[in-house]
Specification:
Chains A, B: It catalyses: tRNA(Asp) + L-aspartate + ATP = L-aspartyl-tRNA(Asp) + AMP + diphosphate. The structure is a homodimer of 598-residue chains. Mean pLDDT of chain A is 88; it is low at 1-48 and 240-256. The longest helix of chain A is centred in the N-terminal third of the chain and has 36 residues, at 51-86. Chain A has helices at 51-86, 168-175, 225-228, 239-251, 264-269, 271-276, 278-300, 339-347, 388-408, 410-419, 438-448, 464-478, 529-538, 548-557, 570-577; strands spanning 94-96, 108-109, 123-136, 140-147, 151-158, 181-190, 205-215, 304-305, 311-312, 324-327, 330-334, 352-360, 373-382, 434-437, 482-486, 499-500, 503-507, 509-514, 517-525, 563-569. With 598 residues, chain A is of the alpha+beta class. The first copy, chain A, folds into four domains: 57-82; 92-215, Nucleic acid-binding proteins (OB fold (Dihydrolipoamide Acetyltransferase, E2P)), CATH 2.40.50; 225-276, no CATH class; 280-586, BirA Bifunctional Protein, domain 2 (2-Layer Sandwich), CATH 3.30.930. The relative contact order of chain A is 0.08. Chain A has an eight-stranded mixed beta sheet with strand order 8-12-13-20-19-18-15-14, with helices on both faces. Chain A starts with 50 loop residues before the first helix and ends in a 21-residue tail after the last helix. Chain A contains 15 helices and 20 strands. At the A-B interface, helix 6, helix 7, strand 8, strand 9 and strand 10 of A face helix 6, helix 7, strand 8, strand 9 and strand 10 of B.
Chain lengths: 598, 598
């Protein structure tokens, strides 16, 4: 239909002219003389010749005339043949998509992931990205056609003598389509003599009968698909460095082997190609599925979803690192976590709640571990006897994700590992999780860790290098990359963390780790307003300051049961599960202090 | 365990003293004289008396002494009994929760929604809100215990003569617990003689054997549960008006019938009680389930979830109504919709994507239809032949939600309707949806609508009253509250809307309506950069302005197939499905120009 027809930003290769056939060199004939016209007899200027010589000359002329006649006949025949060819019997079978150019109504619409024996010999329709086209001689073109999810197939168009369904012009036109254009193709599914290398569908190929250009890519891509699929090593946000790198990238269209990989900035400047790379599609699939598994598990455990606000009236978790904005005649803040709101849900009569949504940190950290906007998977629940009930749910939830993602995204995980190789992520069976107290972790670090950590203390929070060193020790000792540190020191936790009644130097709070990096923080919260206010004062905070007062008041409105929870950073879970070099690669649109686009 | 023990914000009723039994009035004996001590003979001061009289007096004295002895005996007996009683044999069975006070290990942990015949006669543990307590005489107390999801049961504690498991002190103490405290109760499930009125579990009751206070509510609630469950009529954000209303509310603790309902502001100031109301819990359940159904349907149709950013570097949909904030050395904006990013996903090789997340409008509209932050359910997909493919998905998705929510949340819908009565929401069978063109809608309004709409035009967008009037006409004519207006005039749509090639005065764009109110807007987008840039110029926008250039550039990076989508406002779907008086009631934490808390 007409309204579906895109116009082409880049002028498509000119169609073969319809009336004037392209000039084909005429077959070689004696110079200057046109066949059919007898050549004048040589020496005609009044010369006397013998009868014998005349006869001989006549025979010769006859012979030449005959030769010329034959040549003319051949030329005419060839000219006719050429005329037929340049008429282009295939002209309805290719070109820019238009209402007049239609795929056969009986073609089966196909997706590459579903292709099978039942399609062999059938006429199918495929809508796909043309990722490569290569002529072989003048009559044959090979293309690679790609669909979402890294599915690709080889297509072949071969011109037949009669030029239908494929003519030489059509083959040539297909060969001239720019990579990453979107095409609509009709063809017959066939089995190649040998499996096709370089396509994920290797046991079938497509014998193209029609090919229409739906949306053209530019002649020169900002980043090729192959470049987009290479590992990134430069995650710097420094624009100067990036612009140099980018120039290098722009020049590297021809894709020789061993060319340096593009920087993250180049990827983001070429977001379309970045996202088209099978690598990024695999990461996106894994991420979406992990989020789904998180929701699945918590729903199965009686948790109810809710939506905390992003715009808040007070910075309840402290004024540092919070984004502020003018809000009509007031000031608003962007939520740093849904903590406050999860607790209102519990106070408001919910037993178990969870949320998945954006949280914001105005932290000027330019590291591969930080972003200013990321996705929090948060949960909060009533505690019956002991806060380890919460820890059980958090650990089991993550184990559920790890166990199931291996099955649901085996192909995608393998693809990511082919670009970013890494050791298998180790995790225990349910019920066999490794839980150390913070003090036990510090002890392990002191006794078995690197020299520089011989003096770590039980009452000070860990640094990133300490966490990573402990992660390596835990892997060696317990055979897992996933574990918990419990009973964090009081000094390392915010005012709402419940102290351990048996030892007020530590709290009923924990962090969960993957490969030595924190992915979840949580604990029991103080649910009694008197205890909470006292604790706030002890921490040196004014209990009547904005945000704090509203927080404490929640527990004064009505009796609130004991509760606890945790917040999981989805970006980190994805990144560290795959051992990606940066959390930015796991985000759909990473936000850093220097980067807000695209 | 000790670390689970909450301290009580409000001093609990004093426990019965353990050593000194409460003084009980001694039984009446002759004034001043103590039994057992013979009264001195009257007239002892040297008076002469006859022997007969003396004998008579002696007999009388003996009789009185005997009487006094018996009284003393009785008094001693009663004193002993009282002492036993005031020793309080039940003292381990009630009081603030503490490590020493434990529910029997063999008590079955129960949730009211699961209670059944198999529990009758069994000892169970219930953790619940005490929503009401009422003494009957000195020995008996009735309570209503509530769990999440509007489940409530009657509990009875009756003091036995021996004071165990329930003593008079215990009954009295239970009767003094403030409503909306959280309690842990042990009891035996029994069948009442007649069904209990006023509790949702009416065929069972709980004979309480233990009752511990886990978290106390204040003596005076800011808003009672009954008030929280009443329909709201005042949604004004004007603070002055609210503070008056609030005062009225604060005085209305005793809950006489006919008291005016609280305003929305009072509800939000008492968010804990607002959320505890069965009404709000039902609305929250319906909302969460609708969101789940949305995801379920789109996943089943091959859509992949992604997460658009909230922080963006340019206001791509125009500068009006956008929140701006300082972002390190730049300025950032809060996304008004994920439109730009949905399209990047399609350009980036996805066939079908969806998202669920917050969107922001800095619109100073104080109406029951507007919020500054709300939840967008967005989708975008490749178009094969015709943009109505997109409309099919959107309509079928909403029909899937309407069909399934009736089954999954029948109880919750009934509860909401009991507070906010409304006509049944009518919707068609799949494949029988009502689709009018915008022009057809205007014609219907001109020909059959109210007098004031006789002159509505086909080239001007509709006003809210026009939309509502049309909704009523469609309900009458087609028997549905859910329908679509297609082919909106070009003037009413943004620059990225694809014109109808057959009639460029209109676009391939549509709105979906519920009860005459828009809940979804969408259409086909221009996917060709040349066409897009021309259209942007026609609309009088500079194609090189910030945000616009980046947008057009996406389509220049590589060929992008035809695509379209739509954005559904979840808050509106919930509110109009239930016919709530304001969209604010459907939100978890409504954000308005004047309201950022809680």
């Amino acid at each position: 239909m007409a309204d579906q027809q895109p116009t082409n930003p880049v002028p498509p290769p000119a169609e073969a002219p319809k009336t004037e056939p392209a000039a084909t060199p005429a077959p070689a004939v004696p110079d200057g003389t046109l066949a059919g016209t007898p050549a004048p007899a040589p020496g005609g200027e009044g010369a006397t010749i013998s009868k014998k010589a005349a006869k001989k000359a006549e025979a010769k002329a006859k012979k030449e005339a005959e030769k010329a006649r034959r040549a003319a006949e051949l030329a005419a025949k060839q000219a006719a043949a050429n005329a037929a060819q340049s008429e282009d019997n295939a002209k309805e079978n290719y070109g820019p998509e238009s209402p007049e150019k239609q795929i056969s109504p009986d073609a089966i619409e196909i997706h590459l992931k579903d292709i099978g024996e039942e399609h062999v010999g059938k006429t199918v329709e495929l809508r796909a990205w043309l990722q490569n086209a290569r002529m072989q001689g003048a009559k044959m073109v090979f293309v690679e056609l790609r669909e979402e999810g890294n599915w690709s197939i080889q297509g072949i168009a071969t011109a037949s003598p009669e030029g239908n369904p494929v003519s030489r012009q059509m083959a040539k036109w297909i060969g001239s389509i720019n990579p990453e254009s979107f095409v609509v193709v009709e063809g017959t599914v066939a089995k190649p003599a040998v499996p096709v290398k370089g396509c994920t569908v290797s046991n079938y190929e497509l014998h193209i009968t029609k090919c229409y250009l739906h949306a053209a890519a530019p002649a020169m891509l900002g980043m090729t698909l192959a470049a987009a699929n290479r590992p990134i090593t430069n995650f710097s946000d420094e624009e100067q460095q990036a612009s140099v790198e980018q120039k290098v990238e722009k020049l590297s269209i021809s894709e020789p082997a061993g060319i340096p990989a593009a920087s993250m900035l180049t990827h983001l400047d070429n977001i379309v190609m970045h996202k088209r790379s099978p690598l990024q599609q695999a990461i996106a699939d894994i991420r979406a599925e992990m989020k789904q598994l998180y929701r699945e598990y918590l729903r199965s455990q009686g948790f109810k979803e809710f939506e905390p606000p992003c715009l808040i009236g007070a910075a309840s978790e402290g004024g540092a690192n919070v984004f502020r904005l003018p809000y009509f005649d007031k000031e608003a803040y962007l939520a740093q976590s849904p903590q406050f709101y999860k607790q209102i849900e519990i106070a408001g009569g919910r037993k178990r709640v969870f949320s998945c949504g954006p949280v914001f940190r105005a932290e000027n950290s330019n590291t591969p571990r930080h972003m200013t906007e990321f996705t929090g998977l948060d949960m909060e629940m009533e505690i019956k006897k002991d806060y380890h009930e919460v820890l059980d749910v958090l650990e089991n939830c993550l184990l559920y994700i790890f166990r199931n993602i291996k099955e649901r995204c085996a192909k995608e995980i393998a693809l990511v590992r082919s670009v970013y190789p890494c050791e298998e992520f180790l995790f225990p069976e349910p019920g066999k999780t490794v839980r150390l107290t913070f003090a036990e972790g510090q002890k392990l670090l002191r006794e078995e860790g690197p020299e520089e950590f011989r003096n770590v203390r039980d009452d000070e929070d860990m640094t990133t290098p300490q966490e990573k060193a402990l992660g390596a020790l835990v892997r060696k000792k317990y055979g897992t990359d996933f574990y918990t540190l419990d009973k964090f020191p009081e000094s390392a936790r915010p005012f709402y963390a419940k102290e351990d009644p048996a030892n007020p130097k530590v709290t009923n709070a924990y962090d969960l780790f993957m490969r030595g990096q924190e992915i979840c923080s949580g604990g029991q919260r103080i649910n009694d307003p008197v205890e909470l206010e006292a604790r706030i004062r002890t921490k040196g905070i004014d209990p009547n300051s904005p945000g704090i007062k509203e927080y404490v008041d929640i527990f004064r409105q009505a009796g609130v049961p004991a509760h606890g929870g945790g917040g999981i950073g989805l970006d980190r879970v994805v990144a560290w599960y795959l051992n990606l070099p940066s959390v930015h690669l796991a985000a759909y649109y990473p936000r850093t202090p220097k980067r807000l686009l695209p």
